[in-house]
Design brief:
Layout lengths: L12 H9 L5 H19 L2 E4 L1 H17 L10 E5 L26 H8 L3 E6 L11 E2 L3 E2 L15 H8 L5 E6 L5 H7 L2 E4 L18 H6 L1 E6 L2 H11 L24 E4 L10 H16 L3 E4 L5 H19 L1 H7 L2 H13 L5 H24 L2 E4 L16 H10 L5 H5 L3 E9 L2 E8 L5 H14 L15
Helix pairs in contact: 2-3, 5-6, 8-16, 10-13
């Protein structure tokens, strides 16, 4: 393949899949390259906590045999992909970072893992998450701490921190993640890669090992999604993950490409969505991205969406009211100290709603969706920060109430999308003081295509290098 680096682990999934189909490289060679990269750099960052080398090579051999037979090939045929340890994958544990769940071995694939497997992906490893996947930092008593490939002293994000760190370090071109309050978008931001939480109902979700159904707020706000080093790989992974599964009644067969929008497309630039101030580097990243889109022909206007602060407050009230009822016992029995401390801090700052008040919040969600739909009809792209601060120092959320509240306030830009069921893309804009910076792009429901189009424009103007090794600290 012309103009590609000699090491296949450096290729994105789009190029890798094409090279395998054209027999320029075998699936086994691609998998061996990723596994070798994992062996080289993973000990320093602890992103992949279970390497499935034998299974991956056997699957790669089967993929090469299928190609030789002339079988129909899936879009990710032979491409190595990692999955997060909170999602079921047949034959391996769904530990969710919890010591008591270390032996919870899945007997069948979750909906999203099944889609990846049917698309031909080679599932080579499992990535780390905080215990019970409820922190913006990635560490747990079972697998230890994951480090940011750019700086060991700063969080790789959470909860899909292992996924983001792996992709950033070249351990697989695509990683699976999930996002209820930024758990795809924030790790992507912190590690300098791209990530998408799609529209509610876009990607099916179901874990057969689950002992009970999730709270309704989690059902309505959680989304599965990919992380990758290129936006075009997000499109590829999204198309694969979005295939239907009868086990998820919320899934919708919506087209991945919507009707063309009138040109020029208007962009709402909102560098300070909460109106309370933003770090200068974060503001510059948003404004820089706005200038890039303007130069590409978008009409960029500084304007705020409807009641962003109130939308964030409703995310907290809607989810945490149920959390007090449905999650407290699980955190007490399964969570490590960091998970329990985080849960307690979240509950302490969230309002305690009566059933009537919670129902009113749920009803108000529809009014907010209506107002935002009208806003996004006029401004199809909303450009805003991922976080109001650069990536946090490791462990900041556990350093007392004031520190936790500062972390939570900074993450407010990510909380509107889950409440409203809207897609959000995180795309890097470069480095500031050696740490990745980036922006978030939101669009109307089912219009991931518009958000990805804008993300590709920003990506083209802001290429990111591959980090060599984290500065300082120790993994595990």
């Amino acid at each position: 393949m012309q103009n590609l680096p000699p090491e296949p682990w450096r290729w994105d999934a789009t190029d890798m899949a094409r090279a395998i189909r054209l027999r320029a490289i075998s699936a086994r060679e691609a998998t061996q390259s990723v596994l070798a990269r994992c062996a080289e750099v993973n000990p320093a960052i602890n992103a992949v906590v279970e390497v499935l080398g034998e299974e991956a090579l056997a699957a790669a051999n089967a993929a090469d045999t299928a190609l030789a037979r002339g079988d129909a090939l899936g879009p990710l045929h032979g491409v190595p992909v990692s999955t997060k340890i909170n999602v079921d994958q047949k034959g391996v544990a769904t530990s969710n970072g919890c010591v008591p769940l270390a032996s919870l071995v899945a007997k069948e694939d979750s909906a999203v893992v099944g889609n990846l497997r049917r698309a031909g992906a080679i599932l080579f490893g499992r990535t780390n998450t905080p215990a019970l996947s409820m922190r913006w930092f990635t560490e747990n008593d079972l697998h230890g701490r994951t480090l940011n490939p750019w700086s060991a002293e700063h969080t790789p994000g959470g909860s899909s921190g292992g996924a983001a760190a792996a992709v950033a370090a070249g351990i697989g071109p695509i990683a699976h993640g999930n996002d209820l309050g930024g758990s795809v978008r924030y790790p992507a931001y912190a590690c300098g890669v791209a990530g998408i939480r799609p529209s509610f109902g876009r990607i099916p979700a179901y874990n057969p090992t689950a002992a009970a159904e999730r709270p309704i707020s989690a059902q309505l706000m959680s989304a599965q999604g990919p992380l990758a080093r290129s936006v075009r790989d997000l499109r590829l992974a999204l198309s694969v993950m979005a295939q239907g599964d009868a086990r998820d009644p919320w899934w919708m067969p919506a087209p991945l490409t919507g009707a063309p929008r009138p040109r020029p497309i208007r962009v709402a630039l909102c560098p300070d969505p909460m109106g309370g101030g933003v770090h200068p580097a974060v503001r510059e990243a948003a404004e820089h991205a706005g200038r890039i889109l303007a130069a590409a022909g978008y009409v960029v206007e500084q304007v705020s969406p409807p009641d962003f602060p109130g939308t964030v407050e409703d995310w907290e009230a809607f989810s945490r009211t149920e959390g007090r009822i449905a999650l407290a016992d699980g955190f007490a029995k399964l969570g490590d100290e960091g998970a329990q401390q985080t849960f307690a801090a979240m509950m302490a700052r969230a309002p305690e709603l009566s059933l009537a008040a919670w129902a009113a919040t749920a009803a108000r969600r529809t009014a907010r969706q209506r107002a935002w739909a009208a806003f996004l009809a006029d401004h199809p792209i909303l450009l805003l920060p991922v976080s109001l601060e650069p990536p946090f120092p490791q462990g900041l959320d556990l350093q007392g109430t004031q520190a936790f509240d500062s972390v939570f306030r900074a993450q407010a830009p990510m909380l509107a999308a889950p409440l409203l069921g809207l897609p959000g893309v995180s795309v890097p804009t470069g480095l500031a003081d050696g740490l990745p910076m980036g922006v978030q792009i939101m669009a109307a429901r089912w219009r991931e295509d518009l958000a990805l189009d804008a993300a590709e424009v920003i990506e083209a103007a802001c290429p990111m290098p591959t980090p060599i090794a984290p500065r300082g600290g120790a993994a595990g």
